[in-house]
Write a structure and sequence with these properties.
This protein is 51% helix and 17% strand. The protein is of the alpha+beta class. It has two domains: 133 residues, no CATH class; 95 residues, no CATH class. Strands 1-3-2 form a three-stranded antiparallel β-sheet. Strands 4-6-5 form a three-stranded antiparallel β-sheet. Strand 5 and strand 6 form a beta hairpin.
């Protein structure tokens, strides 16, 4: 099958398919296609190149060809960060590997070309190192939170995701969780997580028995967000309020 493209790519530019990225970071390709199409609505993302790529069975035999996107380096890094930020460095490592392979087939033909190539390599290394320094703390934080067995209160989570550019309080966060169907509204179950999100291990509820002064007892139920829930919800919450402010 002849690849179907919407634009021509620079022959000297390193490219990678979305299919290879999703295989690297264990993300479902069909869902990734939709996210990339959403990203492409931003003019700064650049035009997309669509192509056919082969897929294979677990035993290595050919399965079928599917439609995917061919991404340049800038697009690949943006997509990797969007799909799975904690594994972004895996994508960057692969891009560096592809760049090395490409350079091996493009040896300089003169001293001037060699100097130019050395300068380009140094510039790219500096950019990648800067990106690595910027993203690694975020990736390590996401990994540590996802693997954490400690759940936190909604108010604590609100503080954790607040920054210089985004701020949210406990009450506002509770309202967002109710409006987006994560927590129940009204009655004795107010602000308690819906069962499917407890089953998905996004939330947990902690029950405590309180002894009153008159000898009676009462039960309090506290909603807490697990490490898995923190990772899954943080970006959604920030993006939700950011888009509202822009609109």
């Amino acid at each position: 099958m002849i690849p179907q493209t919407t634009t021509q790519t620079n022959k000297n530019e390193v490219t990678i398919t979305l299919k290879e990225i999703t295989d690297l970071i264990s993300v479902e390709h069909s869902k990734a296609m939709k996210k990339v199409e959403k990203l492409s609505e931003e003019p700064s993302f650049g035009r997309l190149a669509k192509m056919a790529t082969p897929t294979y069975n677990p035993n290595g035999s050919f399965n079928r060809e599917i439609q995917t996107y061919q991404l340049n380096k800038k697009q690949a890094i943006a997509v990797g960060a969007k799909l799975n930020n904690s594994l972004l460095m895996t994508v960057i490592d692969r891009l560096e590997e592809l760049e090395g392979e490409k350079r091996a087939y493009q040896l300089p033909k003169s001293f001037a070309e060699a100097l130019k190539l050395a300068g380009e390599i140094e510039e790219q290394n500096e950019k990648l190192q800067a990106l690595n320094n910027e993203m690694r703390p975020k990736a390590l934080f996401a990994d540590s939170v996802a693997q954490s067995h400690t759940s936190i209160l909604v108010g604590q989570f609100a503080k954790a995701i607040s920054s210089d550019t985004f701020s949210i309080g406990q009450n506002r966060l509770f309202a967002w969780l109710r409006e987006n169907d994560y927590l129940m509204k009204g009655g004795n179950s107010h602000n308690q997580p819906k069962q499917r999100y407890i089953d998905n291990k996004y939330f947990e509820v902690v029950e405590r028995t309180i002894n009153n002064a008159d000898g009676s007892t009462r039960i309090t139920i506290t909603t807490k967000i697990t490490g898995k829930g923190q990772v899954a919800l943080a970006e959604k919450i920030i993006n939700s309020f950011t888009h509202q402010e822009v609109a």
